[in-house]
Design a protein that fits this description.
Elements lengths: L16 H9 L3 H24 L2 H15 L3
InterPro entries: DUF4244
Keywords: Membrane, Transmembrane, Transmembrane helix
Pfam family, one: DUF4244
Length: 72
């Protein structure tokens, strides 16, 4: 007696040729997108750190927090 097991993602030889070509051409795209987003986020964080460490910005933020915490 032979039983077949259902496969959620069939092997490439079981799929149509156009499906194989399309999926193979997109292999690794999600990883590349995550890498680009991570690099962009790190760059943005670095630029933000440079801006926030400046004296003028620090004084402005300190003043803003003090005025927000002051009653009256």
């Amino acid at each position: 007696m032979t039983t077949k097991t259902a496969v959620a993602s069939p092997e490439p030889e079981d799929r149509a040729e156009s499906d194989v070509d399309e999926r193979e051409s997109e292999r690794g795209l999600a990883t590349a997108e995550y890498a680009i987003a991570t690099i962009a986020a790190a760059g943005f964080a670095g630029a933000l750190m440079v801006i926030l460490k400046g004296g003028d910005v620090k004084a402005m933020l300190t003043s803003l927090v003090q005025s927000a915490l002051t009653i009256g």
